[in-house]
Amino acid sequence: MEHTNIFKDSEVGGYNPDADGDYHKVTDYARDFNYTQGQIARAIKALSSNPDADFMILYGGVVTDSGGGQVDISAGVAIGQNSDDDVRFIILPAQSNVPMPTGWDDGRQLWVTGQHEWVFGSSTRNHKQTVTSYHYTVEDSFLGNSDTDDLFVDADPNSPSEATICWGSFTMTGATFAEVAGERTDELAHSLNRYIEKIETVSLDSDYLILAFELASYTDCVSADIGRTVVGGTSGDEGTLRAYNNTTRKWLIETSDSWNDNDENVTITSGTGAGNLDDTNYSGGGFGEACVIDLSLSNVFSIDLDNDCYFYFTNIPSSGVAASCSLMITKDANATEREANFSDLVKWTSDGGGVPDNLDTSGQIDYYSLITHDGGTIWLGFTGGTNFSV
């Protein structure tokens, strides 16, 4: 963003403050702009459930694998501080195919960081009184603008010596990307949903697959397995574990591979969970897909279910901040039953419908509510009603 009509030099000598030669000092305008920006940021913080927090992400800045040892980072905005501890917006334009700093693809943990930055831009011009002057602009900038290596650090920035937010964390081993959960600066937008509750329509995401396992061969996953690489017994079958349910023996993986429906010896690299796929689960509806519930977008979600689905929650606020969401699930007209799968981190009330049943009636609507107050370690699930017909 560029802010014009700024002159770095003060008033030109010999002229009164008039149209011929009146120059404002850049510091005057910068103070006005920074004051306005700070007040807007403070107003947004005041609407949150944690207005005393110094650093919070408004939206975006999500780090994902782009292949070949590189990452993509979506456009994002956060509220943070400048070096003088003044409240400011921290901006990150979308970044594509960002390489690692030299030598940092060795499996070490990396953090993608952001700080408040601004720069001067200038162009020369001749003043009407034939005096050469410099017309300056102030531009919002971002960490990594001059060198994307500046976006990355390999030491935990969550107790920063500088005014820093963390967009996300991961490891890169060669060309293998693995997300490290729990490192991202807390979200703010979810708390605004107390005031504005829009319905967010979510489509199933085919970049995810549901893996179902045979009982005899199954070894339970543990929480440390999340974010690690899942490898199938068939060459090329690979993905990243995003969620699991040891009771139903179903995993959600993020992958671009098609996977073999009778894959055996499925393991997790440096992890615990393992087993052979139960190919009887794939005879009707394929492997299924994910429904990604992004709590930074809303807390009321509408889902049209045309395949088996695994619900996966992202941008969950940190422990101590309550987050809730409502899911309105509508089955398609196909006669095939559709599964609504959840992680075993979701604990369903025993006297309110229990674990969700498959949807088996064309056009039926099921309604569920979930709440967490510990960053998603445990979700409490409630069945609001099933098999509505409208």
Task: Describe what this molecule looks like in 3D.
- Residues 1-26 and 189-196 have low confidence and may be disordered.
- The radius of gyration is 26 Å and the shape is globular.
- The strands form seven sheets. A six-stranded mixed beta sheet has the order 14-22-24-27-28-26, with no helix packed on it. It has a six-stranded antiparallel beta sheet with strand order 15-18-17-16-19-20, with no helix packed on it.
- It folds into two domains: 2-190, no CATH class; 199-388, no CATH class.
- The chain has two helices and 28 strands.
- The chain is mainly beta.
Average pLDDT level: 79
How much beta, percentage-wise? 35-45%
Write down the domain tally.
2
* Number of helices in the DSSP assignment: 2
What is the strand arrangement across the widest sheet?
14-22-24-27-28-26
Contiguous uncertain segments of 5+ residues: 1-26, 189-196
List the helices and strands and how they pair.
Elements: E1 2-7, H1 26-46, E2 56-60, E3 63-67, E4 70-73, E5 76-81, E6 87-92, E7 95-99, E8 106-114, E9 116-126, E10 132-142, E11 152-153, E12 165-173, E13 176-179, H2 189-192, E14 199-202, E15 208-212, E16 229-231, E17 238-245, E18 250-254, E19 266-268, E20 274-275, E21 289-294, E22 300-305, E23 309-314, E24 319-331, E25 340-341, E26 346-348, E27 365-374, E28 379-388
Parallel strand pairs: 14-22, 21-23, 22-24, 23-25, 26-28
Antiparallel strand pairs: 1-10, 2-5, 3-4, 4-7, 5-6, 8-11, 8-12, 9-10, 12-13, 15-18, 16-17, 16-19, 17-18, 19-20, 24-27, 27-28
